[in-house]
Design brief:
Layout (H helix, E strand, L loop, with lengths): L1 E6 L2 H11 L6 E6 L9 E2 L7 H10 L4 E4 L2 H5 L2 H7 L3 E3 L3 H4 L5 H8 L1
Length: 111
């Protein structure tokens, strides 16, 4: 299985580390990744919010499964777009997330 982890933080590093241990994974990529993640996966210079670039990469590299870590690409509908292209992805759809990306703003304004 060819897997892509989207993101570059500690959460994504932990995901890459755990996924890399699976005997089912033949190749692991991370976009954009970081120096620590590079020890577990091949880092790709595509931003986490570059939905079109990520989808193009998945098609070109025949990615079987995508794990989306950060909130921003989820809010942009990355999971929805990947699934529409027939690429399996882990993460909530944009509609399923509701307005969570605005939760911090609401809390700060209403406090």
């Amino acid at each position: 299985m060819r897997v892509l982890v989207v993101g570059s933080g500690g959460r994504e590093h932990a995901l890459a580390w755990a996924i890399s241990a699976s005997p089912l994974v033949d190749r692991l990529f991370c976009a954009p990744g970081n120096a620590g993640i590079a020890e577990e996966a091949e880092c790709i210079a595509i931003g986490a919010t570059d939905v079109a670039g990520l989808v193009r990469f998945c098609r070109n590299e025949r990615i079987n499964f995508v794990v989306v870590g950060p909130e921003a690409p989820l809010a942009l509908g990355l999971v929805d777009t990947l699934e529409a292209e027939g690429i399996a992805a882990f993460g909530p759809s944009a509609a399923g997330r509701g307005n969570r990306s605005f939760e911090g703003l609401r809390q700060g304004t209403c406090a």
